[in-house]
């Protein structure tokens, strides 16, 4: 049984008497201890998907249809009390900005202890010991000292380590990390990613990493899901997607990485921009930016097909596979 199973998920936003689709028919699974990445530009629906997994979509957004099953329990059907039982305890979330997560008027220790005692019936002393142990586990020097400090007294990297420690307090089965290194410099980013990777490996924790950077994803995730305009457009093993991207959008994301250009050259970029929810084009949503788009792309939504070990929603790939099949058939005849 999959630890997490998302099936045909649709999330809408009710705006000015119209329904805007933020997620369309999204499906994927996550096994215990597996590390997957959700990749795409801003507006692709990555964070909406992350919030949906823990049913934290606030009005005017709502889950319109589909299911999100944690083992055999559907999160979309849970009441608030049931959700409080799994949030933090079974599924924990790391948000983009640690200063938005940490309370500036409470010490680090008070916040960690409060998290523990809100889910368990243990003494303050025992909760303090657990919190200090977790601070030590995320490689924070002098954890007893940091326990009594306020968030503003810590560096950005240190605050992000505190956030990681906080999600480990209750030994969750799944960690959702939403752009966890966005506000950090490159050196600290690498340290945080290596820390996350080590924690997941050592504790058998499944990871959902939300990122716009395939370079970051390649260091952490075993499997990658590429999203565009609320839909999944490609999914497969991370190494396959990095080395042999199938969808033109995935190819564009890879070509836009800084290491894909020589020093002094202009960075590659995908022409155009992500459409807004209210202006999603017909057919394949990527067709206005795609150099290979045909009339069929403008009119029809492609279905998923397997290309090697990856699945992709693209008519170009479908046509190429059909052509190869015809050639093989002629050779065999």
Automatic annotation (TrEMBL):
A biological-process GO annotation: transmembrane transport
Keywords for this protein: ATP-binding, Cell membrane, Membrane, Nucleotide-binding, Transport
UniProt domain ABC transporter: residue ranges: 6-254
InterPro entries: AAA+_ATPase, ABC_Ni/Peptide_Import, ABC_transporter-like_ATP-bd, ABC_transporter-like_CS, Oligopep_ABC_C, P-loop_NTPase
GO cellular component entries: plasma membrane
Enzyme class: translocase
SUPFAM superfamilies linked to this entry: P-loop containing nucleoside triphosphate hydrolases
Single Gene Ontology MF annotation: ATP hydrolysis activity
Keyword Phosphoprotein: no
Catalysed reaction, written as an equation: a dipeptide(out) + ATP + H2O = a dipeptide(in) + ADP + phosphate + H(+)
EC number: 7.4.2.9
Superkingdom of origin: Bacteria
Location(s), subcellular: Cell inner membrane
Bilayer disposition of the protein: Peripheral membrane protein
Family membership: Belongs to the ABC transporter superfamily.
Annotated protein name in UniProt: ABC-type dipeptide transporter
Organism annotation: Marinomonas profundimaris
């Amino acid at each position: 049984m999959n630890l997490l199973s998302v099936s045909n998920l649709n999330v809408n936003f009710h705006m000015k008497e119209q329904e805007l689709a933020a997620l369309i028919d999204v499906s994927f699974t996550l096994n215990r201890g597996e590390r997957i990445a959700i990749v795409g530009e801003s507006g692709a629906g990555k964070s909406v998907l992350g919030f949906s997994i823990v049913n934290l979509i606030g009005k005017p957004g709502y889950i319109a249809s589909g299911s999100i099953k944690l083992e055999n329990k559907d999160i979309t059907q849970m009441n608030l009390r049931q959700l409080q039982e799994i949030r933090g305890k079974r599924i924990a979330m790391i948000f983009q900005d640690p200063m938005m997560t940490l309370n500036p008027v409470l010490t680090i220790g008070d916040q960690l202890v409060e998290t523990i005692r809100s889910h368990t019936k243990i003494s303050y002393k025992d909760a303090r010991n657990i919190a200090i142990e977790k601070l030590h586990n995320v490689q924070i020097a002098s954890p007893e000292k940091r326990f009594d400090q306020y968030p503003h007294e810590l560096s950005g990297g240190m605050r992000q380590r505190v956030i990681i420690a906080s999600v480990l307090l209750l030994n969750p089965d799944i960690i959702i990390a939403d752009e966890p290194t966005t506000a950090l410099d490159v050196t600290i980013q690498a340290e945080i990613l290596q820390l996350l990777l080590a924690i997941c490996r050592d504790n058998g924790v499944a990871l959902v990493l939300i990122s716009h950077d395939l370079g970051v994803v390649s260091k952490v995730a075993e499997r990658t899901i590429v999203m565009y305009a609320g839909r999944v457009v490609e999914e497969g093993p991370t190494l396959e997607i990095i080395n042999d991207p199938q969808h033109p959008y995935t190819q564009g994301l890879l070509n836009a990485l800084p290491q894909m250009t020589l020093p002094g050259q202009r960075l590659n970029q995908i022409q155009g921009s992500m459409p807004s929810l209210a202006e999603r084009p017909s057919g394949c949503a990527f067709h206005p930016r795609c150099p290979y788009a045909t009339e069929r792309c403008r009119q029809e939504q492609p279905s998923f097909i397997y290309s090697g070990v990856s699945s992709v929603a693209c008519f170009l790939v479908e046509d190429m596979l059909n052509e190869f099949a015809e050639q093989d058939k002629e050779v065999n005849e």
